[in-house]
Design a protein that fits this description.
Helix content of chain B: under 10%
Structural class of chain B: mainly beta
Number of strands of chain A: 9
Shape of chain A: globular
Largest sheet of chain A: 6 strands, mixed
Low-confidence stretches of chain A: none
Number of strands of chain B: 11
Order of helices and strands of chain B: EEEEEEEEEEE
Oligomer: heterodimer
Strand content of chain B: over 45%
Largest interface: A-B, 23 and 20 residues
Radius of gyration of chain B: 13 Å
Mean pLDDT of chain A: 95
Order of helices and strands of chain A: EEHEEEEEEE
Distance between the termini of chain B: 40 Å
Low-confidence stretches of chain B: none
Number of helices of chain B: 0
Largest sheet of chain B: 7 strands, mixed
Strand content of chain A: 35-45%
């Protein structure tokens, strides 16, 4: 099963802005929308946003998501040391009836 | 608050079976679809399977189809993953996750190691 495509790594400076991308197709990201998860080493994933741009309660406004066509994006503003983590996108594929994940992007805050 | 607690992991030989459980609390279990997602050491997330809220629909990743079976017991607020014919590549932390528009709540995971 094909997955979603994410860049393996992104590096940005403290207090800068990072934009992570996730590319799928019309059957998943382009139709169902994407959600974003943050995972720190040794911990389970944590939901940051879903349906492209809805943040669960308690998630900082520094995290915002969007979608254009078959590509979803997660923008993190005012980068902090604690933002250094792996970020995964996911989407339901209505053609395959499976949840797809991207390979994950390792965000480094310099 | 929502809690998901996985159990049943351990070391198992190739070809053998293992049954994982995920105990849920803090929400009305019977109204949510439940998923299993795994993560091999040092690797990314891989979705494994989902069961609908009423248990009538189940979907599986190709990598586990025919070997793994998901089930739920709403009287015990528990979802199970029966894993048969285990392979070395099934070695991973297995997470259960509640689904509502997304995989929104995750347990801490249970480690399964398939090794002789």
């Amino acid at each position: 099963q094909a997955g979603l495509t994410q860049p393996p790594s992104v590096s940005k400076g403290l207090r800068q802005t990072a934009t992570l991308t996730c590319t799928g197709d019309i059957n998943n990201v382009g139709n169902q929308g994407a959600s974003w998860l943050q995972q720190h080493q040794g911990h389970p994933p944590k939901l940051l946003s879903y349906r492209n741009n809805i943040r669960p309660s308690g998630i900082s406004e520094r995290f915002s998501a969007s979608r254009s066509g078959n590509t979803a994006s997660l923008t993190i503003t005012g980068l902090q040391p604690e933002d250094e983590a792996d970020y995964y996108c996911s989407a339901w594929d209505s053609s395959l009836s499976v949840w797809l994940f991207g390979g994950g992007t390792k965000l480094t805050v310099l | 608050q929502v809690q998901l607690v996985e159990s049943g992991g351990g070391v198992v030989q190739p070809g053998r079976s293992l049954r994982l459980s995920c105990a849920a609390s803090g929400f009305t279990f019977s109204t949510y679809a439940m998923n299993w997602v795994r993560q091999a050491p040092g690797k990314g997330l891989e979705w494994v399977t989902v069961i609908s809220n009423d248990g009538s629909n189940k979907y599986y990743a190709e990598s586990v189809k025919g070997r793994f079976t998901i089930s739920r017991d709403d009287s015990e607020n528990t979802v199970h993953l029966q894993m048969n014919s285990l392979r070395a590549e099934d070695t991973a932390v297995y997470y259960c996750a509640r689904e509502s528009n997304s995989l929104e709540y995750w347990g801490q995971g249970t480690l399964v190691t398939v090794s002789s």
